[in-house]
């Protein structure tokens, strides 16, 4: 499945599917983690996890998942794992707040965000408001910011554990 331009939504993505979002601000809604590859393309793209108890590890999946600046964990108790290098590779500078950092946004109704890389220096940042929702920012020491909507558990694979 693919698109060329415009803001598109791809639904029911799962087993062996290949999706390329194109140049708009696209949403790709997955119901399982056994897809072949997902590429949001250009624009500010969102990967929506519609399944239950899904686990997406951006570091482990590598090029199988690329081109997403936003992640919606949905309501199924899903988990997103990412490192500072994942944010640097896929984020956008000043997307959430103007602070000069490369940023990604994670939201949804419930779920966990596992920040990988103990040596990345993840620390809790400020509380902020993103799209009308209270959010907590999380910083890595070298210009990375990940904003996580309140209501999520942030697990740091460094010596820090937060409950949002």
Q: Summary?
A:
This protein is mostly beta strands. The chain has helices at residues 58-61, 84-90, and strands spanning 9-13, 18-20, 27-30, 37-39, 46-49, 55-57, 65-66, 70-72, 78-83, 92-93, 102-107, 111-116, 123-130, 133-140, 144-149, 153-156, 161-163.
Textual characterization of the structure:
The protein has 164 residues and is mainly beta. 7% of the residues lie in helices and 46% in strands. The chain is built from two helices and 17 strands. It has helices spanning 58-61, 84-90; strands at residues 9-13, 18-20, 27-30, 37-39, 46-49, 55-57, 65-66, 70-72, 78-83, 92-93, 102-107, 111-116, 123-130, 133-140, 144-149, 153-156, 161-163. Strands 1, 3, 5, 8, 10, 11, 13, 14 and 15 form a nine-stranded mixed β-sheet that branches. Strands 6-9-12-16-17 form a five-stranded mixed β-sheet. It has a three-stranded parallel β-sheet with strand order 2-4-7, with no helix packed on it. The radius of gyration is 15 Å and the shape is globular. The N and C termini lie far apart (36 Å). Mean pLDDT is 78; it is low at 155-164.
């Amino acid at each position: 499945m693919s698109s060329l331009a415009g803001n598109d939504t791809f639904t029911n993505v799962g087993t062996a599917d290949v999706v390329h979002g194109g140049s708009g601000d696209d949403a790709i809604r997955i119901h399982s983690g056994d897809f072949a590859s997902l590429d949001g393309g250009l624009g500010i793209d969102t990967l929506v996890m519609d399944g239950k108890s899904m686990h997406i590890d951006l570091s482990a999946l590598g090029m199988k998942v690329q081109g997403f600046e936003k992640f919606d964990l949905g309501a199924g108790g899903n988990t997103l794992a990412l490192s500072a290098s994942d944010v640097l590779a896929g984020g956008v500078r000043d997307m959430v707040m103007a602070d000069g950092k490369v940023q990604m946004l994670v939201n949804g109704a419930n779920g966990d965000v596992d920040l990988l890389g103990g040596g990345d220096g993840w620390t809790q940042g400020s509380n902020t408001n993103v799209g009308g929702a209270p959010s907590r920012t999380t910083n890595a020491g070298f210009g990375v910011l990940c904003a996580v909507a309140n209501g999520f558990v942030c697990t740091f694979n460094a010596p820090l554990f937060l409950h949002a």
